[in-house]
Amino acid sequence: METFKIAVIPGDGIGPEVIDEGIKVLNKAAELDGSFSFDYTYFPWGCEFYNEHGKMMDDDGMETLKQFDAIYLGAVGYPGVPDHISLRELLIRIRKEFDQYVNLRPIKLLKGAPQTLKKDHTIDMLVVRENSEGEYSGSGERLFQGKPEEVVLQTGVFSRKGTERIIRYAFEEAKKTGKSVTSISKGNALNYSMVFWDEVFEEVSRDYPEVDTYSYLVDAASMFFVLDPGRFEVVVTSNLFGDIVTDIGAGIAGGLGLAAGANINPTREYPSMFEPVHGSAPDIAGKKIANPLAAIWSASQMLDFFGQEQWGARVLTAMEDVLQDGSTLTPDMNGNASTDQVGQAVTDALDKKIK
To answer: Model's pTM, two decimal places?
Structure first.
């Protein structure tokens, strides 16, 4: 039996609540299959840890995480700890130091999910977001702080290596699935970084003549995400633009309660990290009403990553069964079920499908 070692960082707010349900589903998949299992190690890192110790994780945290096959993260952020500290000293640190340069956000309207758009649309895209540099590189300077002449410089970093590898990753995904690739940039205004991005996209596309390609400015793309999402299949874009358009995607595909994400290190030199992307939602933490479906969807991404694609697909089907049934949903989806009841419903649906 193959055992996958998982570092679990439940994190802040509703993180621990939703992660518990994802683990419940992972364990059921392993039980039903019988050829693999999971070994979990929990870490108490996050904002509460920061308030006690003045840091978001242990000093040797990164070294400790290297021994795991994957990381399962609940949420980061809580009132009292500035967001730039909680984010950069845990989530972004892990992404960058483990070279998780691929952020995968599936934007798919599952059967039974609430439809935000008035017209019926096909919504089934994969957003491949650059995850290690770009606008989130952390480079810049703040001069003459507090004075009338104060100046702030925030520098986007776009290396040829970083830009080419994320675009090539998107093309490989499209090639495998027979889909098109759409690049989202802003070359008409960002005359260095985004012109460079567009040039590299054009260069890489020549290696994939069988893949249809499109290119949109980010403002136009944002509009078409809402007006005509069916035109997008595989989307590749920069760190900042990817962060923005995927939240639009979540809005048109059932809401943040269904927003899953994976931070992938394709070489597997370091562990990859899987997380719901709805945030810590401190206003409902502890009330047991948080929607666990995003955490469960990210667990299905983990199954895909481990080569268990059939189980990843079965988890999504089980989620669709729960959504279509409609009797066990959390308040954000107009239901009255608790977090653990929804998790159990997905687990039961997965069990029923196999039996």
So the answer is: 0.95
